[in-house]
Structures are given as structure tokens and as C-alpha cells.
Amino acid sequence: MRVALRPATEGDREFCFRLHEAAMGAYVAAVWGWDEREQRAYHDRGFAPGRWRIVTVDGADAGMLSVEHRPGSLYLGRIELLPEFQGRGIGSLLITDLIADADRHEVAVELDVLAVNTRARALYRRLGFREVRRHGDGDRKITMRYHGTRTGTR
User: N-acetyltransferase domain: from which residue to which, for each copy (predicted)?
Assistant: First the structure.
């Protein structure tokens, strides 16, 4: 299995929306309810082809990744994979690469995850992330942080 990243383009707008619906729709619905028009507007406001990367597996579009460089950390803004590519180690591989990059730069990795997304939370914990705080209405979101080997204890 060959996993690669390519820059997102304007032509990936619809793929990324449908990906978000497939990967996160049930979680969004559980927290806020899935309103197609509202979710489309949210996606259109946030879609950033210059910053997003498309995850490919053996040449096929499989997901997306968004990482922001912040003072003292790399922020994993989004990682989403189509359901047929989940559970195959792809997310772990991408996050492990991000952790290695953070270690090289002596910064932490941070992310936010919906509290209802227990599968993602379990993955992040297995990879060494720890809960930092809960926030949002009813503590719906959890900020998690990975402190690498060079930046202190995990």
C-alpha cells in the first residue's frame, strides 16, 4: 500500500465535502444534526486548497489532511479518510509522520476531537496524545496534545 499526499486544488472541493460527510457525518449529526445546506456553507467557508492536502492510497483519493504551523506546535486541523480506507493504518501512519516532524522541530502536536468520536480519541491515545482540556457547548470538543521526546514527556 502506497500512501502519499498531494496538494488540494479547487477541483477537490466536492470530493472534500463528500469525504467530510462520509467520515464525519454521523458525529456531526450526533452533536449538531446534519443539515446539508448548513454543512455545505461551513465547508465552503473553510475549504483551503492552498493548505489542505489530499491523501492518496495507491493513486486513489482516500482522504484529506490539514496541518497548521503554530508557535510551539503543529496543529492537526483535520484528518479524514473515506470509510473504506479507515482501520488500515493510514491515519496512524500520517499522524506518526506528523509526530516525527514535530519532534525534529522540537514542538508539540495538538488537535481537537469531538467527544462523541470515541474511535478517533482511542487512536490518538494509542499514539501518545493526552487530553488537555474540554471546551465548546457541553464540553463537546476535546483538545489533545502530544509532547514529543524532545519537548518533554508525552
Answer: 3-149
Residues in the chain: 154
Helix ranges restricted to H, the chain = 13-31, 36-46, 90-105, 118-126
110-121 core/surface letters (b: 16 or more CB in 10 A; e: else)? bbbbbbebeebb
Of 26, 30, 92, the C-alpha closest to 65 is 92
Domains of the chain, CATH where assigned: 3-146 (3.40.630.30)
CA angle 113, 111, 55 (to 5 degrees): 90
Place of cell 454543512: 39
Edge to edge, the sheet with strand 130-135 lists 3-7, 52-57, 60-70, 73-81, 108-114, 141-146, 130-135
Set of cell numbers at residue 49: 486548497
pLDDT digits (tens, 9 = 90+) for 88-118: 999 999 999 999 999 999 999 999 999 999 9
CA angle 75, 78, 80 (to 5 degrees): 145
